[in-house]
C-alpha cells in the first residue's frame, strides 16, 4: 500500500467518488479508502434523484436507472392526493436509481481517472501535527497503517466521525435525526411512474413515508420519523410494518434496511487545516426531502476543485481551503438548504387537520413549475385565512 | 447498581444512526457490526434514535 498522496478521501459514497474523480483528473495523486468490503452495499437510500440535478454530474445510463418518474403525489392524512405531473410542469421529475450499480460506477470513474481505491479499510484516527490534519491512521483488512496526504476529505457519511476526531462537532441532535427503515418490496400494486409521499402524524411523525418505484411491481417502501418521536413500539420499523400490512399485505420483502438522515443545518464550518468535509458528513442533506445524493456530488466536486489549487501552491491551511466553504454556502444549493430548513421547521409543527386543509386547498392545481417554491407560493395564495400561520413559509421564500 | 448499553446484534441493521447522535462519540460501526469503542454514559439517546430497537440501556445490580 502506498502511504503518501496529494489527497486522501475517507469514504466511497457519491461525495468521495466525485471528489476523487475530480482531483485525479486535475493530475493529483488520490486515494479513496472505504471501510465496507464492497462499494455501494448495503444501500441506505430510497434512490430518488432529480433528473436535472443528476445530469450536472453524470450522463444517465440505463444500467443504473431502475425507474423514470413522471409525477410525484403527496398524500394527506385524510387521503387527499396532490398530484404534481411532469406533463403540466415545464421541467422533468426524476429517476429512481439502482445505487448498488450507481455508486460503483462513480468509484469506477474515479479509478479510471487515476485514483487508488482500497476497500475494507477503515480510518480510525486522523494524523494530527501542530493542529493540522496530515493523513489518517487506518486499519486495512485488520492491519494498521498510516496514509499521509496534503489534504484529507472526510466523506464518511452520516456517521461523520473523522471530522469529529479532528475537532469539528458533527453530532446530530436527536430531534434532527430522521430515523429510517425501508423495505424493497416486490409483487405489489403501485403506480410505476409516481413517487408517493405519505404525510401525517399517525403515518410518519415529523417525517414522511415514501413509495418509490423500482419497476412495474417493485418499490422502495420506507419511512423516516424524527428521532424524538422514536421509542419502543413506535419506531420507524413499527410504523413501516403497519403501513405495509395495510397497503401491501401480499408484498414480498427482498431487502430490509435501516438508516439515519441528518436534517439539521450544515456544519458551521466545513474546513480545517488539512481537512475538508463533504456530503452527508458536512450535513448538507436537503432537510425537507432528505435528498442528499446530488448535494454530496456537488460538495465533493467543489471541494476537490478548491483542493487542487491549494495542493499545487503547497498551502492546505484552513484559510486556503476556505473558498470551498464560502462557495457552497453562496451557491444555489446553499440557499436551498437554508430555505428548506425553515420550511421543514414549519411543516413539522402542523397537526393532521392543518395538513388536510393545506392539501385540500391545492388538490386540483397544475403547477407550471415543479419545485418547492412553486408549491409554497400556491399554498400561500390559496389559504388567505392562514396568512398569519403561513408567514413562516413566506419568510422562508424571501 | 450500574447502567450500561446493550447492543442486540441480531436486531442491529448496522446503519450508523446511533453513531451520529452519540454525544460522547462512544459508538463505532465496524464493517457489519456496531461496537462500543469508548466510554458510554448510558444517556440512551442512541437507543431512542435506533430505527430497529437494537439498543437498550440496562440497569444491573
Ligand atoms: C433511508 C434513506 C433514504 C434516503 N433516500 C434518499 C433519496 O431518495 N434521494 C437522495 O438523494 N438521498 C437519499 N438519502 C440520502 C443519501 O443516501 C445520502 O445523502 C448520500 O448517500 C450521501 O452520500 P455521501 O457520499 O456523503 O455518504 P455515503 O453514501 O453514506 O458514503 C459514506 C461512506 O463512507 C464510509 N465510511 C464511513 N466511515 C468510514 C471510515 N472511518 N473509514 C472509511 N470509510 C468510512 C461508509 O462505509 C460509506 O460507504 C437517503 C438516506 C437514507 C438513510
TrEMBL record, chain B:
<dbReference type="Pfam" id="PF00037">
    <property type="entry name" value="Fer4"/>
</dbReference>
<dbReference type="GO" id="GO:0051539">
    <property type="term" value="F:4 iron, 4 sulfur cluster binding"/>
</dbReference>
<dbReference type="GO" id="GO:0016491">
    <property type="term" value="F:oxidoreductase activity"/>
</dbReference>
<feature type="domain" description="4Fe-4S ferredoxin-type">
    <location>
        <begin position="3"/>
        <end position="32"/>
    </location>
</feature>
<protein>
    <submittedName>
        <fullName>4Fe-4S dicluster domain-containing protein</fullName>
    </submittedName>
</protein>
<dbReference type="InterPro" id="IPR017896">
    <property type="entry name" value="4Fe4S_Fe-S-bd"/>
</dbReference>
<dbReference type="InterPro" id="IPR050572">
    <property type="entry name" value="Fe-S_Ferredoxin"/>
</dbReference>
<keyword id="KW-0411">Iron-sulfur</keyword>
<keyword id="KW-0004">4Fe-4S</keyword>
<keyword id="KW-0479">Metal-binding</keyword>
<keyword id="KW-0677">Repeat</keyword>
<keyword id="KW-0408">Iron</keyword>
<dbReference type="InterPro" id="IPR017900">
    <property type="entry name" value="4Fe4S_Fe_S_CS"/>
</dbReference>
<dbReference type="GO" id="GO:0046872">
    <property type="term" value="F:metal ion binding"/>
</dbReference>
<feature type="domain" description="4Fe-4S ferredoxin-type">
    <location>
        <begin position="33"/>
        <end position="60"/>
    </location>
</feature>
<keyword id="KW-0813">Transport</keyword>
<keyword id="KW-0249">Electron transport</keyword>
